[in-house]
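1st attempt posting a full record on here, be nice pls
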Amino acid sequence: MTDNYPNPFNPSTTISFAIPKSGSTKLTIYNIRGQKVIELVNKQFTPGYYNAVWNGRDSNNRGVSSGIYFAKLEHDNNVKVQKMVLMK
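the predicted structure (as C-alpha cells):
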C-alpha cells in the first residue's frame, strides 16, 4: 500500500495498493481508538495496481469527525497499515 493522497484530506482520499498475486483482499478503515469505521474492499483481486476512495463516511453513510484514521490492507496473510488525517 502506498501513501493515500491527499493527506491530510477533506472530503475524500484515494488509497492505492498493489496486489502481487491473486487472492482475497480486504481494506478497512479504523479510527484512532481501533474501532472499525468502514470496510472499503473485501473481494478477490488478480495481480495489479488498484485504487480505493474513502469519502470520510462510516458504514452507515454518516460523515466522521476530523482526526487520525488508519487504512488496514490485508492480503495473503500480509497486513499493511497507513495513517491518514481527515481535516474538516
